[in-house]
Amino acid sequence: MDIILKYFPNLTDEQKQQFAALDALYHDWNAKINVISRKDIDNLYEHHVLHSLGIAEIIRFTPGTKVMDLGCGGGFPGIPLAIMYPDTQFLLVDSVRKKLTVCQEVINALGLKNVEVRWCRAEEIKEKFDFVVSRAVMPLTDLIKIIRNNISKHQQNGLPNGLICLKGGELEHEVLPVKNISDITPLSDYFEEEYFETKKVVYTHIKV
Length: 208
Description:
Strand order of the largest sheet: 3-2-1-4-5-7-6
Helix content: 25-40%
Structural class: alpha/beta
Number of strands: 7
Largest sheet: 7 strands, mixed
């Protein structure tokens, strides 16, 4: 928990309580339904929560923003972002039902009112969103094809509507065919831990 306060010291008391509660919740649920590697669960805050909040370093969502977390797995980056932005609406989508069971239980325990989970394929989502976020390993070109019709024309943030992905490693070849890559931000610019040396936030403006 200290690592979250290190980079985000201005949290409200409620946010601090919600972030602090994640440790016990994920250790408990991960023992029943494996959504985080057993070897990695003790790195929950650095590798999962803080990594998710890397998105909060490149954009501050305005109240009323709608965000879809595609392929949310155990709830990352959606749940940490929902704690950070209580006035933003989040839809967490995954095709694996048991993962969403964990997400829903964590959401309920935290008392988050701004998050909905949905068990389906991405292609079944018909709503419009300001942003789609993802920590999935799917190539950017495939992700863009899937979510292009889910991006709203209405703009209400400083950053134009689009796709925000958490990616790692060498991205040169992956981003080459993508026309509207607007920004690739190394998370090492913000977080000093060794884990973030190869981690990046990739923002793509989706023109509607």
